[in-house]
């Protein structure tokens, strides 16, 4: 009886190990991309150094976006959104050719902003987008 219980426990442990090993590449990619996203948000939104944030992006992004464009984008974001207050990780989606990371951010002028970061398969940040989410007022209160 003890041998059967031990065999079942050993089988369960091996199954869990196999599942953990199968998930590891995705988990590692998520972790790496979260680190890059946090560093990029710190430089771009907290320290307000868009040219340095551009240098943190992948080579394809750097070909498409120049220093003047990212500086004007940062200035527009600062005018429209106000001061950055914080972010909450929401979702990570893995596609064939890219990964998408979504955060909900809070700014001085906009309480909820959806931020989407796009990473290539090598884990390089290639693009970003920010869209304020407008709150609908309850018409019954009026």
Structure description:
It is built from four helices and four strands, in the order ααααββββ. The chain has helices at residues 2-46, 50-55, 59-64, 67-81, and strands spanning 84-94, 98-107, 113-120, 125-132. Strands 1-2-3-4 form a four-stranded antiparallel beta sheet. A hairpin with a 4-residue loop joins strand 3 and strand 4 (125-132). The radius of gyration is 21 Å and the shape is globular. With 142 residues, it is an alpha+beta fold.
How would you briefly describe this protein structure?
With about 140 residues, the protein is an alpha+beta fold. The chain has helices spanning about 1-45, 50-55, 60-65, 65-80; strands spanning about 85-95, 100-105, 115-120, 125-130.
Which helices and strands appear, and what pairs or packs with what?
Layout: H1 2-46, H2 50-55, H3 59-64, H4 67-81, E1 84-94, E2 98-107, E3 113-120, E4 125-132
Antiparallel strand pairs: 1-2, 2-3, 3-4
Averaged pLDDT: 87
**Cα-atom radius of gyration:** 21 Å
pLDDT under 50 segments (min length 5)?
Answer: none
Helix content: 40-55%
Strand segment count: 4
Spatially, the strands of the biggest sheet line up as 1-2-3-4
Oligomer category: single chain
Instruction: Please state the structural category.
Output: alpha+beta
Q: Helix segment count?
A: 4
How big a fraction of the residues is strand?
25-35%
